[in-house]
Amino acid sequence: MARLRTSQRTYALTAALIMGSSTLGTSGCFWGIVGQGPSLGIAGLPIPISPYLQEKEEDKYWQHERYDRVPILGPITSGGAPIALDTPSDDEVMRALEKARPVEGGIPLLWERNRNDVRIIKEKIADYVDPVRVYPMIGPAQQHHAHYKCTIYYEDVRRVGWPVPHTLRDEDAREVVYIDHNHLHMVGDVDGGTGI
Q1: SS3 of 124, please?
Q2: pLDDT in tens, 42-70
Q3: Tens-place pLDDT, residues 81-93
Q4: Distances (CA, A) of 77 to 73, 82, 126, 145
Q5: Are 118 and 152 in contact (CB under 8 A)?
Q6: Beta carbons of 141 and 72 less than 8 angstroms apart
Q7: What is the distance between the alpha carbons of residues 74 and 189, in angstroms, rounded to a whole number?
Q8: Where in the chain are the domains?
Q9: CA angle 55, 58, 63 (to 5 degrees)
Q10: Which of 16, 88, 160, 169 has the most Cβ atoms closer than 10 angstroms to its Cβ?
């Protein structure tokens, strides 16, 4: 038996790798480079995402879906002053408070902060309707404003773990958050009828 030279071994190894990769690509078990049916290619592989980023995106979507949109309601009926009926929810008030004065985070056993025994008082401070104007993509409408003053009473607990563990409690902590609720009322022929 004659020994193969190094160049022949390299040639044989290269040919075996090419044959193996081509059969793997056509088997349908690879990334779908050559397979049957539609494929996402390399984008079909699952990519892990951290729970922090996932929770951040979910909160962003929740905020947009619940509180960042301006609803368009029917026309204001005659016979009385229009009154805003939707007071801010407790979730909306706490989100506004977290945006203004965040508490999340801290380092366990080193420094932590909590809000306990939360009580919320909501007061309407203004409720008025603007004159009619034309809004792009909506048409003639009136904007209805409702302004609320939300006072949050809570117990502020701070736990410090280093150098000497101790707890600081402020039982009479309070914060004030102002929340605006705006929505539009259509004006005129909202059904789009021809009037014939």
Answers
A1: strand
A2: 777 778 889 989 999 999 999 999 988 88
A3: 788 878 999 999 9
A4: 11, 8, 20, 17
A5: yes
A6: yes
A7: 10
A8: 84-196
A9: 125
A10: 88
